[in-house]
Amino acid sequence: MYENAPEEVTNVIVTGKSGAGKQPRIDVLVEEYDLEQLSTGNIFRSYLGSFDEYDYDGDISQFWDEEERRFMKDEKIAEEIGTDEEEVLLGLKAKYFVDRGKFVPDRITNELFESYFGKKDYRNQVLDGYPRTVKQAKFLLELVEEKGTDIDFIVWVRNTDEKIVERTTKRRICPECEKVYHLEYDPPKDGKCEDCGVEVIQRSDDTEERIRSRLQEFKEKTKPMIDYLEAEIPIAEVPGHLEEFTPENVRRSVMEELDKVWKER
Question: Going residue by residue through the chain (265 aa), what tens digit of pLDDT does each one get?
C-alpha cells in the first residue's frame, strides 16, 4: 500500500511543539521499523540517577567556572569526587543546571546525548526531544557522519497552538506508573488510574501559562532547527490533530506522509 515509504531505517527524528501529539506517532515508527525510542528526558533521568546513586555530598558548583562559562576538566572533577565513571560525571554536569532551573547548554546536552546514543550503537533509534536547537542539529549531523550511521527522515508532527492548549490542559497522569489519560479522549474511570487505582493528577507544567511558554520556545529555538535540517534530511509533515483518533488512523497518517516524501525524491 505504501510502496514508496522505506522498508528499513537506521534512525529517525520526531519533532514538533510540546503537546502536538508526538508520542502516538513515535509508537507507529517503533512498531513499523522495529526501533527504540530515545527520549531526552530519559537520558537526563538516567545520568541524574547515576550521580544521585553515587551519593556525592559536596558542593558541585565548585566545578563550574562562571567567568569561562564551562566546567573544569573531567580529570580534576574525577579527582575531587573520587570517580572517573562517565555516567557520574555527566550526571553531575546535568544536575548543576537542573537543580538551578537553568537551561542546559547545548554542549552539555550534546555530551549526554552522544554518550547515551553510543550505548545504542548509534542505530535503531527514534530521537525524541533531540535535537532542539540548530547547534544540536549540527552536532548530530557531524556525529552520525563520524560514526558511519544516518538519520533517514524527520517526522514533524504539526498542530495549532490552540489545539495544543486545549488538549494539554486536559491531560492527566498517574503519579505511580505515569500512564497518561485525557479528560475528553481517554478519561480515567472515577478519576483513577485503571492500573494502579491511584487518583490521576495534572502535571505542574500542563497549565496554560507553562504551555504557551513552551510554544514560544519552540518558535525561537526548535523551528529554526527544523528549517536547518530540511536542507539535509527528508521531512514528513504529519497532522497532530485527527478528527477520528484511532490507532489505525494515526498509523495511516504517518505512513501516507512518508510515502509522499519518498515519492517526491
Answer: 678 878 889 999 999 998 899 989 999 999 999 999 999 989 999 999 999 999 999 999 999 998 888 999 999 999 999 999 999 999 999 999 999 888 899 999 999 999 999 999 999 999 999 999 999 999 999 999 999 999 999 999 999 999 999 888 998 999 988 888 888 878 998 999 999 999 999 988 888 998 999 899 999 999 999 999 999 999 999 999 888 889 999 999 999 999 999 887 7
- What is the Cα–Cα distance from 202 to 171, expressed in whole angstroms? 7
Domain parsing of the chain, residue ranges: 1-33+124-169+207-260, 36-123
pTM for the full predicted model? 0.88
- Cα–Cα distances (Å) from 55 to 52, 72, 115, 202, in that order, read 5, 20, 21, 31
Rg (CA), the chain: 20
The matching CATH number, chosen from 3.90.1150.10, 3.40.50.300, 3.40.630.30, 3.90.230.10, for 1-33+124-169+207-260 is 3.40.50.300
Angle between helices 134-146 and 106-119 (to 10 degrees): 30
3-state SS, one letter per residue, for 135-151: HHHHHHHHHHHHCCCCC
Q: Is the dihedral of CA 175, 178, 179, 182 positive or negative?
A: positive
Q: How far apart are CA 217 and CA 196, in angstroms?
A: 34
Q: Scan for cell 554542549, then name that residue.
A: 107
